[in-house]
Specification:
This protein has one domain: Tetratricopeptide repeat domain (Serine Threonine Protein Phosphatase 5, Tetratricopeptide repeat), CATH 1.25.40.10. It contains 6 helices and no strands. The longest helix has 27 residues. The chain starts with a helix and ends with a helix.
Length: 125
């Protein structure tokens, strides 16, 4: 029993890592796992909707269909929360990708604005 739990946990962890790299199939698989309670997970329709939404945004019509089916069983508030979580996931993974690409944390919008103002003062002076 412990061995199958470890296998399921490893599978979920590997799909999360693949999803973080932008794999729509991994997002779809996570949506299936959360909507059905497979892989040792409890059914969580908010999580399922989030993962189906992320997969659908990458063009998966199958994920869009599953997202609609899951949404039929959710309240408007739960759907809004799932959408908020999907946006948060996208923001976080984009920041991690930028960090890997540029070797430093990306600037917050206020930092970028401050840097642009400082440079424009140098050019105007």
């Amino acid at each position: 029993m412990g061995s199958s739990y470890k296998s399921a946990a490893f599978l979920i962890e590997s799909r999360l890592a693949d999803a973080a790299r932008g794999c729509p199939d991994a997002c779809f698989d996570l949506g299936i796992a959360y909507s059905s309670g497979s892989g040792g997970l409890e059914v969580d329709l908010v999580e399922a909707h989030k993962w189906f939404n992320l997969s659908a945004m990458s063009g998966s019509s199958r994920a869009a269909e599953c997202r609609a089916e899951v949404a039929d069983e959710m309240t408007a508030r739960e759907i809004a929360e799932a959408q908020r979580q999907a946006r948060a996931w996208l923001t976080a993974t984009q920041r991690r990708a930028a960090y890997r690409l540029f070797g430093h944390k990306p600037f917050a919008p206020s930092e970028v604005e401050g840097r642009c103002r400082a440079k424009s003062r140098l050019v105007l002076a």
